[in-house]
Design goal:
heterodimer, A: 141 residues, alpha+beta, Sufe protein. Chain: A, 3-stranded antiparallel sheet, 5 helices, 3 strands, B: 415 residues, alpha/beta, Aspartate Aminotransferase, domain 2, 4-stranded antiparallel sheet, 15 strands
Chain lengths: 141, 415
């Protein structure tokens, strides 16, 4: 069997996402679209007592957009909105190729998407869920 | 997987060596010719020669170089006329591309003949360039935009059209070959039905003119558009064919230099056809390139091109059908795909499909192919597309098939 094209971490999050489902408790929902790719996701967050208590995503997209959304949710559930925004900033720095090693550690599994900084055609796929999350937080709070 | 001997040993014009891009990208398999074709040396040289030896602003200069430039430009127009069987070179208008040609038609003819409550009928498989100009026109005029839907195999029949036309249908727009289905539509029959109904037919030839013999009189279409860059010519040169009496009735599109006869402070009279529609300094280099492209295609022979492309298509099609989880969109019969095969791989997003092909140096297209309403109709968000031209060979198809076989595995399935 050939090695996974995008690596095991991304393949796994794409094929077996933990957070890809509806979320009844969600009190905030935001859509994210990459019209030219056909990536179309919906982010659902349950924000209470100043924390992201739970979250999920639905919709369709390429492996990178799906894996990125799943990894992001894994990271931000339990965090405060400000912590989530901070992680988003780090993620954007990583994609821009400007991140240092300490910052990369903070991103945990999302570091698996670092190679996207060298794939300009896929930047929009990787950042879709993160931008959607930021928009949701800005609209919500 | 081998092509018949006759084609394999066919003359040098089929040869990739004529296409300089392949000497730089030796290992690249180019299967995106429906987006744009590669350019043969003969075309590139013709353009260079024009700029080196004949360049001046055409159509008005009173000196030798300008006369040469005018000749080069008008010879190209005549070559296009002969290529598509138009009666007069006045019926050939140079534009930037098929998109501009379609916009020109909607803005000029469309505004003249479509009124409040009238209907415009568009095949739902149309490229956005043959859809948005009509959408805008309908909105502007208070007209109704209706869609003709094919079968799931991409087939449009004369009966379907009969059922969709009303006495209010002013225009019917359809591609001769859809850039997604790759299927040849029965334009001649459809045109006859339109004309019985007093409806004009606008035919998008962007995917047909480069790959099959197209004769506008035989088809009896009112208007036909195509792009040079999809048929070996440079980008930025396209064609609008229109029946002369129709073009004569149409007001100008863009206004400015080279399209006027006489201008006063209050008004202007416009140049004769086809210059009325060619405002500003024209793209002579592009037209010369298109002329050289037509010469290249003519020398090869459209029949030989069609035969070779059919064989390559069927080679690819048969290979694809044998692969589990690969679904071909449209007809399930290879002969109904004119060099275009659009497909999905179950569980793999088309962008990932294209990325894996790219990693193996194979260029294919992924997305909605500028046909979003069609993808909604088909119920697939997006798809992948391989499209070929005569410069492809059986080796290219073998490479395509062997990568296609690995896609699900490389996405992590089946381990």
């Amino acid at each position: 069997m050939a090695d996974s094209f995008y690596g095991e971490v991304l393949a796994d999050h794409n094929l077996h996402p933990l957070h890809r489902h509806e979320l009844e408790s969600a009190n905030f929902v935001c859509k994210g679209l990459n019209p030219t790719c056909g990536d179309d996701i919906e982010l659902h967050l349950d924000i209470r007592d100043g924390r992201i208590a739970d979250g999920s995503f639905t919709g369709i997209g390429c492996a990178i957009s799906q894996a990125s959304a799943d990894i992001m949710l894994e990271l931000i559930i339990g965090k405060t909105p400000d912590e989530a925004r901070h992680l988003k900033d780090l993620f954007m720095k990583m994609i821009a190729g400007e991140i240092n090693d300490d910052e990369l550690d903070e991103l945990e599994e999302a570091g698996a998407l670092q190679s996207i900084s060298k794939m300009p055609a896929r930047v929009k796929c990787a950042t879709l869920s993160w931008k959607t999350m930021e928009k949701l937080l800005n609209d919500a709070l | 997987m081998h092509l018949t001997g006759e084609i394999m040993m066919n003359d040098r014009l089929f040869d990739k060596d004529n296409f300089p891009v392949f000497s730089k990208y030796k290992d690249t398999v180019y299967l995106d010719s429906a987006a744009t074709t590669q350019k043969p040396m003969q075309v590139l040289k013709a353009v260079q020669k024009y700029y080196e030896q004949e360049n001046a602003n055409p159509l008005r200069g009173l000196y030798e170089l300008s006369v040469k430039a005018t000749e080069a430009y008008e010879n190209a127009r005549e070559a296009v006329r002969a290529f598509i069987g138009a009666k007069s070179s006045k019926e050939i208008v140079f534009t930037r591309n098929a998109t501009e040609s379609l916009n020109l038609i909607a803005y000029t003819l469309g505004r003249e003949i479509v009124g409040n409550g009238d209907e415009i009928l568009v095949a739902v498989s149309e490229h956005h360039s043959d859809l948005l100009p009509w959408q805008m026109l309908a909105r502007e005029k208070g007209a109704v935009l209706k869609y003709l839907e094919p079968t799931q195999y991409g087939e449009y029949t004369p009966d379907m059209l009969k059922g969709a036309l009303t006495d209010k249908t002013k225009i019917f727009a359809i591609a001769q070959v859809s850039n997604v289905f790759g299927r040849v539509n029965p334009i001649k029959e459809l045109a006859a039905i339109c004309h019985e109904n007093g409806t004009l037919i606008v035919c998008d030839g962007a995917q047909s003119v480069p790959h099959m013999a197209v004769d506008v009189n035989e088809l009896d279409v009112d208007l036909l558009v195509f792009s040079g860059h999809k048929m070996l010519a440079p980008m930025g040169i396209g064609v609008l064919y229109g029946r002369q009496e129709l073009l004569e009735k149409m007001p100008p599109f863009l206004t400015g230099g080279e399209m006027i006869e006489y201008v006063t402070r209050e008004g202007a009279t416009y140049a004769e056809l086809p210059h009325k529609f060619e405002a500003g300094t024209v793209n002579v280099g592009g037209a010369v390139g298109l002329h050289a492209a037509i010469d290249y295609i003519t020398e090869l022979g459209m029949e030989a091109i069609e035969k070779r492309e059919r064989e390559l298509t069927s080679l690819a099609f048969e290979g694809m059908k044998g692969i589990p989880y690969v679904n071909i969109i449209g007809s399930q019969n290879a002969t109904e795909h004119s060099g275009i095969i659009t497909f999905t791989v179950e569980g793999v997003h088309p962008h990932d499909i294209a990325a894996i092909f790219d990693a193996d140096n194979i260029a294919i297209r992924a997305g909605h192919h500028c046909a979003q309403p069609l993808h909604s109709f088909l119920g697939v968000p997006s798809s992948a597309r391989m499209s070929l031209a005569f410069y492809n060979d059986s080796y290219d198809i073998e490479r395509f098939i062997s990568t296609l076989k690995t896609i699900r595995g490389r996405m992590g399935y089946g381990r």
